[in-house]
Amino acid sequence: MIAINGLLLLAATTLASPITPYVLTRQDVSTPQNASLPNVTIFATGGTIASQGTTNTQTVGYSVGLGVEDLIDAVPEILNIANIQGYQISNVGSPSINSTILLKLYSMVQAELAKPEISGVVITHGTDSLEETAFFLEMTINSTKAVVMVGAMRPATALSADGPLNLLQAVTLASSPKARGRGTMITLNDRIGSAYVTTKNHANSLDTFYSAEAGQLGFFINQVPYFYYEPAKPVGLVNFDLTNTTALPKIDVLYAHQDMDPGLFQGAILLGAEGLVVAGMGAGGVSSAASEVLETIYNTTSIPLVSSRRSAEGFVSPGDYMIAGGFYNPQKARILLQLAVAAGRSREEIREVFALNYPS
Ligand SMILES: *[C@@H]1O[C@H](CO)[C@@H](O)[C@H](O)[C@H]1NC(C)=O
Ligand SMILES: *[C@@H]1O[C@H](CO)[C@@H](O)[C@H](O)[C@H]1NC(C)=O
Ligand SMILES: *[C@@H]1O[C@H](CO)[C@@H](O)[C@H](O)[C@H]1NC(C)=O
Ligand SMILES: *[C@@H]1O[C@H](CO)[C@@H](O)[C@H](O)[C@H]1NC(C)=O
Ligand SMILES: *[C@@H]1O[C@H](CO)[C@@H](O)[C@H](O)[C@H]1NC(C)=O
Ligand SMILES: *[C@@H]1O[C@H](CO)[C@@H](O)[C@H](O)[C@H]1NC(C)=O
């Protein structure tokens, strides 16, 4: 039984909405110091890893509720690996993570990694949008120290809950000198993946994070992280300095399909979008009606339009007016476009940023 410290009350939370934000009662955590251990900081944002169901067989429709201290309490083995500082950034399901939380996370992670005594950081996060936050940090954090994103597919109350072991592995990874220079990593279910390419592939299964084309960086055996490769910088990686950034622009993703209403593109712009990503069919295809509307937007505005794909994997090739998303899936293309627009890049400059990711 894991330590949930009186928070069982929360299990009575209504299941009508799948994820209910919880008002925190406890925030920052500091474990006893052992000067011979590395120092790791955990930033908790919510998600399934911080969730409780009403029974030990409930694996959907549960509520977020556990604070960062509960997560650490559930895995006392962590204290043999690192001294932990814990901060609660938010406590929401990851569909509710937004750009305000991303910017807060960026500034806290960047500041923490600048401290010489810190080996690395762990971010606990819901899995649904974990890859977006991970990619955002990959493209912004300027440090060779380990940034490890972790979550769980089963709530803390479930039989065979995966959160505690995932968290132990994440802290181990953040403590490991071998993890340096590898950018932001995602670890769940024994696997270690690069935030640059890793994506969520299964809505329910524990083994959900992988990258079919680029593969995994490494694997855990008996809590020891093994890497398949030396640290490497992926082609296309850029670093945006967000020191003076206080807000991120609104960028929308629109999903193409048969009979798609092209008015949706204009609607998104009327609602304030400063850039659009189109999850096109196949390698980025849209209907001729949609194409004409997109070309009109291109001709009459300076709004950047990025073409990505609704296919799970693959490359979208450069075209005339759309900026090709290359290998980026729509959600990663959206984060990159958001960062590039925030940095004040023009449409043609943004085209060059995306082109860095094309094979050369
Ligand atoms: C501190 O950590 C070291 C290395 O893991 C361990 O050998 C030692 O027993 C720890 N000291 C205490 C007081 O826990
Ligand atoms: C962890 O932090 C403490 C306190 O700042 C420091 O004394 C210790 O050297 C740090 N550990 C490592 C491995 O850097
Ligand atoms: C993000 O969500 C928080 C509440 O969780 C809210 O205060 C903030 O205004 C939101 N930011 C944006 C950009 O919507
Ligand atoms: C990253 O940090 C290095 C050294 O601290 C610095 O020289 C470089 O300008 C920084 N890059 C960005 C994009 O901020
Ligand atoms: C942030 O603002 C300060 C003060 O105006 C300036 O010196 C610095 O160059 C700016 N940094 C970036 C990355 O824009
Ligand atoms: C966009 O502008 C180009 C170049 O002026 C023109 O050939 C094309 O017909 C325009 N497309 C639309 C849909 O207005």
From TrEMBL:
GO terms for molecular function: asparaginase activity. Its EC number is 3.5.1.1. It comes from the Eukaryota. Substrate binds at residues 94, 127-128. The active site is at residue 48. The lineage of its organism: Eukaryota, Fungi, Dikarya, Ascomycota, Pezizomycotina. Keywords: Hydrolase, Signal. One of its GO terms (biological process) is L-asparagine catabolic process. It catalyses: L-asparagine + H2O = L-aspartate + NH4(+). Pfam families: Asparaginase (PF00710), Asparaginase_C (PF17763). This is asparaginase. InterPro entries: AsnASE_II, Asp/glu_Ase-like_sf, Asparaginase/glutaminase-like, Asparaginase/glutaminase_AS1, Asparaginase_C, L-asparaginase_C, L-asparaginase_N, L-asparaginase_N_sf.
